[in-house]
Structures are given as structure tokens and as C-alpha cells.
TrEMBL record:
InterPro entries: Thioredoxin-like_sf (IPR036249), UAS (IPR006577), UBA-like_sf (IPR009060), Ubiquitin-like_domsf (IPR029071), UBX_dom (IPR001012), UBX_domain-protein (IPR050730). It comes from the Eukaryota. GO terms for biological process: ERAD pathway. Pfam families: UBA_4, UBX. The keyword Coiled coil applies. Residues 358-388 form a coiled coil. PANTHER family: FAS-ASSOCIATED FACTOR 2, FAS-ASSOCIATED PROTEIN. GO terms for cellular component: endoplasmic reticulum. This is UBX domain-containing protein. GO terms for molecular function: ubiquitin binding. It comes from Lachnellula suecica. Keywords: Coiled coil.
Length: 509
């Protein structure tokens, strides 16, 4: 019965964060990752360790299963022949394969050797004496910094000596060690077509687990007499090379020298005590959902036919299971990619909707601002027109009356208005041109019908929208010239009220 899928939205925030961290490291399916995290009490480090190293027996589940043990059945009777037949039946089908742990060797420069307890007790007094004498020496080195440089040895050669084993073989990182093994093998046995992998054991194990493929681990020890025969007659045999090279077999080949730290740890973990040693590793779902186990071990000297006969049946027995797992993983990856594409399409659509909403909002804001500006312009125009009319009414009440017949120093002016009306009026010669302009501007309000003249509007500066011009010759009389009517017009004159067009104002500007 299939396990019902868990809704991720129902997980807590800490559980969702743990799930995201775990899947980013392992790239496992979310439902399987949730079940593994539940078995690990939502501890990300424990879950990642179980994913790479395989899961051990669940003690809690075994204890719960022990409480539900059925009652013992009746004692079974069998004769000697039946016992012999049961003893000859194969037991490998019921035995679980050994786990293949993930080995990550510690760098050589970080290894701290620890002496045994007996040596630690013997050297304790010397250690105390060293600490007693090191204090004054340290004080002297602080006072005289040149003293330590005089007695200091070459640290570079000491570092190199610490990084070299007792057998004279320098320890390298996993990738460099794998390349060195390939180079030494080629120098010893010549060029070959083996599908070497220039990576560490942990990297190859992770790749085999991720791709649901096989990992063939070959450990060599040059100190054994059978190593040369195995490499020349078995490992370089065309059938063996073709078995490892065949892409349908999906085998990753990793070869290590037990004199290297990583290969020695791998030999210890895979229980390889006799060399040359070959282990075939693959995914074993019966042990755990993420377990990698050793399905075949081949040790000792043998011919190429026997070597392949020991590996091929184990390889073929797991081919179908791994093929199904690869198909399921491909389907899960396709589904995950499809969900990611859907999420990306949704995000793009959401971004487009947001962009359209932003553009629409900006357009609405611009239209509202334009409408507001238009309203304000209309209000300002109406207010300006009201102030202008108020100013004209106020100025009409301030216009000097026409001088009488007893006044001799007068100027008679005929003014042609824009409405084709002709006005005759007398002005004092001492009146300014501004007075004449104000008369023309406020002519329609000079009837004097208003009982009370309005006040002058505050903050208003009047601008004349016309000019007074004489025709023959054409002379323009400005209001701001500061001259009097007598100085400009003389004793009499004919003036035309000429409106100032916008084009003329632009030309003047």
C-alpha cells in the first residue's frame, strides 16, 4: 500500500527550512526526504549522514515490533535428511549485503597523533618541565625578537617530512592521489583503455548513488606478489576492460593504492584484507532507501574468466532493480522540473500582471494629476478673472474725471476701441500715459452706477492686454514709459486700441 503524500504546507516553519536544506544538499525527492527527516527527528545532519552512509537498524521500530511478536508455534519435527537438505539450501537470499560507508579522509596536515596511555604517563614530567622552562624563554624571545630566528630550523623541510609517510610516499588529496595511481599504473603496465575516474572515493560513491549505477572499487597493494599478475593478466584483459567500459553496464571504476590514506580507509571499511581486492557497490533498497552496499567481493589471484564470472551474476541480479529506480528518479526529476517550470511560468505571469497593474496605476495617477492640474488651472483662471474684474472696478473709481472747459492745458484724443466704437475725451496734459491706459481698460465701468467701489485686490498685478498706437506715422505709446499725455500725443491725436496677440508676445520674448 502506497504511503500517502505529505502536504508540505502543513509542516512547521522549522521543518520546511530543514526540508529545504536537506534537499539542496541531496537533491532527493521531497516525499522521501520528509520520511527520512521524520525518521531522523528532523535533524538535518543526521538525515544527510543517513543519506550518504545508509541507515542502520531502527531500534525504536524493532522494539515496537518485538511487542507484537506472535505466540510461538508448535515445535517442528524433522529428520536428519531434512536437516541436511536445509543446510545445503542457499542462504545468500536472506542475508543483507554489507553497507558501503562514505569515506572522507582527513587532511594529512590536520592529523594529530596521540600517544598511548603508558607513553603519556611516562612523558608527563618532561611535559611539566618543558612548560616551566618555556615561560622564561618566551619572555626572553619577547624582549629580544632576533633570538628565535637564530635558532629556528627550516620549517619547510619539516613540513615536507611530516607530510611523507614512513615508506617515503607523500600523502595527497583524494583527487590528486587517484591521478597519481593512474599515472603509476600507466608507467608500470603501459597505456590502457580502462575507464579511470580521477576523483576521490566519496565523490564516485555519491555519483553512483545519484545515478543509480555501479561503483567498482579495485584496491591494489604493490607489496603483494599477485598484484603484477592481476594487473597484467586480469585487469588489462580485453573482456574485463570491455566489461568496465560498456556504457550499458553503467559502472564507475575507482582504483586505489592501499599505501594512500584514502584507499587504506576504504579497504578497512569494505573489509578488504587480501589483495588485490575488488568490490562492486550499488544502491540496495532492501537495506534502506538511500543505502549503498557491497553486492560482490573478489579477492586474491584468479584468471580473467573467473573474475568476470564472479562479477557478472551480481551485476545482472541488480540491473532490473536499478533500472526501475533510475526510471522512477527520472520521472521524479521530470515532475520536479515540470513543477519548477510551472512555478517559473506562474512567477513570470505574476510579474507581468504586476507590471500591467503598475502601468495602469501610473496611468491613472497621471490622468488624476492631469485632471487636478486642469482643475487648478481653471480655478486659477477664474480667480485671476475675478481679481482682474475687481481691479478694473476699483481702478474705474479712481479715474480722474474729464477736465472742464475752464481748464486750458488739455489734450483731445479720439480713441478707436476694438468693438469699432469711437470715443472722444479730453485729458490733462499732465496726466500720465498709465492714466490713459487705465481709462481704456476700465471704460465699461465708468458709468458710476456702483454704490460702493470695491477694494483693490491683494496680490494682483495688472498686465495690459492691448497697446495704444497712432496710425500716421505709426507710433506705439507704452504705459510704462513715464511720459505724460501732452508729451506723447501733443494737443490732439487719434489713437487705436490694438490687442496684443500671443504671437507678438512670443516674438517680443
Amino acid at each position: 500500500m502506497a504511503t500517502p503524500a505529505t502536504d508540505i504546507s502543513q509542516l512547521s516553519e522549522s521543518q520546511q527550512l530543514a526540508l529545504q536544506t536537506y534537499t539542496s544538499v541531496t537533491a532527493q525527492d521531497e516525499q522521501e526526504a520528509i520520511r527520512l527527516l521524520e525518521r531522523s527527528q528532523w535533524n538535518v545532519e543526521i538525515a544527510i549522514a543517513k543519506f550518504f552512509d545508509g541507515e542502520g537498524p531502527d531500534l525504536v521500530a524493532e522494539a515496537q515490533a518485538a511487542q507484537n511478536i506472535p505466540p510461538p508455534q508448535a515445535r517442528r519435527q524433522e529428520n536428519l535428511q531434512q536437516s541436511l537438505l536445509r543446510g545445503t539450501s542457499p542462504r545468500n537470499s536472506s542475508e543483507r549485503p554489507d553497507a558501503a560507508p562514505r569515506i572522507v579522509p582527513q587532511p594529512a596536515d590536520q592529523v594529530i597523533p596521540r600517544p598511548s596511555l603508558l607513553l603519556a604517563i611516562l612523558f608527563t614530567p618532561f611535559q611539566l618541565l618543558y612548560k616551566v622552562f618555556s615561560l622564561p624563554l618566551g619572555f626572553l624571545s619577547y624582549l629580544f625578537p632576533f633570538l628565535p630566528r637564530l635558532f629556528r630550523q627550516d620549517t619547510t623541510s619539516g613540513t615536507l617530512r611530516r607530510r611523507v609517510d614512513t615508506n617515503g610516499r607523500r600523502q595527497l588529496p583524494p583527487d590528486d592521489a587517484a591521478q597519481r595511481v593512474q599515472r603509476e599504473f600507466t608507467e608500470e603496465y603501459g597505456e590502457n583503455e580502462l575507464p579511470w575516474v580521477s576523483s576521490g572515493y566519496a565523490t564516485c560513491l555519491d555519483k553512483a548513488k545519484r545515478d543509480y549505477s555501479y561503483l567498482a572499487v579495485i584496491l591494489l597493494s604493490p607489496e603483494h606478489d599477485e598484484t603484477s599478475t592481476f594487473c597484467a593478466d586480469v585487469l588489462l584483459n580485453p573482456e574485463v576492460v570491455q566489461f568496465f567500459k560498456d556504457p550499458t553496464n553503467k559502472i564507475t571504476l575507482w582504483v586505489g593504492d592501499v599505501r594512500d590514506s584514502e584507499a587504506y580507509q576504504v579497504a578497512t571499511a569494505l573489509k578488504g584484507s587480501k589483495f588485490p581486492f575488488t568490490a562492486l557497490i550499488c544502491h540496495t533498497p532492501e537495506v534502506g532507501s538511500t543505502a549503498m552496499s557491497v553486492i560482490a567481493r573478489v579477492t586474491g589471484p584468479m584468471d580473467a574468466r573467473s573474475y568476470l564470472a564472479a562479477l557478472r551474476p551480481k551485476h545482472a541480479a541488480r540491473a532490473e532493480t536499478l533500472s526501475v529506480a533510475r526510471t522512477a528518479a527520472a520521472a521524479q526529476n521530470a515532475e520536479r522540473n515540470f513543477r519548477q517550470e510551472q512555478d517559473s511560468a506562474y512567477e513570470r505571469s505574476l510579474a507581468q500582471d504586476r507590471e500591467r497593474a503598475r502601468v495602469r496605476k501610473e496611468a491613472e495617477a497621471a490622468a488624476a494629476a492631469e485632471e487636478k492640474a486642469k482643475l487648478k488651472a481653471e480655478q486659477d483662471a477664474a480667480e485671476f478673472a475675478a481679481k482682474k474684474e475687481q481691479w478694473r472696478r476699483w481702478r474705474a473709481s479712481q479715474i480722474t474725471p474729464e477736465p472742464g472747459s475752464d481748464v486750458k492745458d488739455v489734450v483731445r484724443i479720439a480713441i478707436k476701441m476694438p468693438e469699432a466704437a469711437r470715443i472722444m475725451r479730453r485729458f490733462r496734459a499732465s496726466d500720465s500715459m498709465a492714466e490713459l491706459y487705465d481709462f481704456v481698460e476700465c471704460f465699461e465701468f465708468l458709468n458710476g452706477d456702483e454704490e460702493k467701489a470695491p477694494e483693490k485686490p491683494e496680490g494682483y498685478e495688472h498686465v495690459y492686454a492691448f497697446r495704444l498706437v497712432s496710425t500716421l506715422p505709426r507710433v506705439v505709446y507704452e504705459a510704462e514709459s513715464g511720459k505724460t499725455v501732452g508729451e506723447c500725443v501733443g494737443r490732439s491725436g487719434n489713437l487705436i486700441v490694438e490687442p496684443i496677440a500671443e504671437d507678438d508676445e512670443e516674438e517680443e520674448d
